[in-house]
Input
Amino acid sequence: MLFSRLDGARVPIILLASLVSSAANSSIFFATDIPEEQRRLMEADLETLTRVSLDRSDEKLKDLFRIPEISNDALQEWLESRVKYVVAKDFYVWDHLYKSPTEVIYPPIKLGVPLVKYLPPIPNTSTRSIMAMMKNVGGGIYSSGRSVNHAYLVSIPGLEKKVSVVSPRVGIVQVGEGLFAVRPKTSSLPVGSVVFSYYRMGILFHEARHSDGNGESLLFSHSSCPPGHDYEGHFACDFNLNGPYTIGAQFFKNLLTACRDCSKIEKSVLKVLVLDAASRIIRVAPRFTLEDSMKLTSRRKHVFSCYQKEELDQKHGPLKDGLCTEAALESSRSEIREIYKKGLANLLIPAPLVARVLDPAPEMLVAKEK
Output
């Protein structure tokens, strides 16, 4: 899932009325519940992908995508093997889900600590609002089926046959509430600027990576952003070197290098996109002593409990007076940040937790023999 800020600090998206309205060369299916204008814009984005200028010497992008060469066809094939269906913002998954009659065997879960645990989630204390651009709901459905040990079928508006979810690469992505949001701070760019099309393409490639992985890398789930980050406390960062944000950063960087016809403003927007995606890649995680780990847990529980005070009051009675004052909350937040700083300073004791390249090969189910 890709998030963006609502306060104008992140590059926004606006409607592109001047682009062509069909993408005849794409195999991605757009559900019939998607508003017509949104469908036309996304089809136009895919059409743009077939002819956009690329930096064909980009070895890093080639290695990330594991493709033999950088070409429009290769990128399109990579994308369409991971994104196959797009559904509307109001698509409610559980209204379209059915248990598959076919019994399946899920691969054994690999032992090891899930990477998301390397960056312990901290309470979201930021007042900044964020919203999702898109969501890879197909991966979520696969994960849900895995947890209850049976596969699902999904009905998609406009398709007669239900889609069988037997791999994280089922490729169902959902339009987020922010994908077509109009932002007033975009007035410096013309409405028809191709950069906005590039941005939506980058979001699709980001979501495509969520269709990959197995075991600990399954779905390339995001990690909680650390203290001091713009998205502190939100699951909007990656603790790996080939996840969705690395994909997005390198894709935008490639377009920036190859976009010789872009204006200075358009290039500056692409640079911001590169920097924003790159800032979400957390390369080193803190190591905590047992004492600090216990203190961190305690302080996190304090902040969480205060943000859930109303619910807790209903279940356990009112909290003690003074426990959730702003001064008490700030004290806990300050300690959380200090513990993280200390943990980062102790990286070499006994060994650093550093981000690494994960296996993108998808899990595959097998049908049980009758």
Q: What stands out?
A: Residues 5-22, 112-121 have pLDDT under 50 and may be disordered. The longest strand covers residues 130-135. Residues 286-354 form one domain.
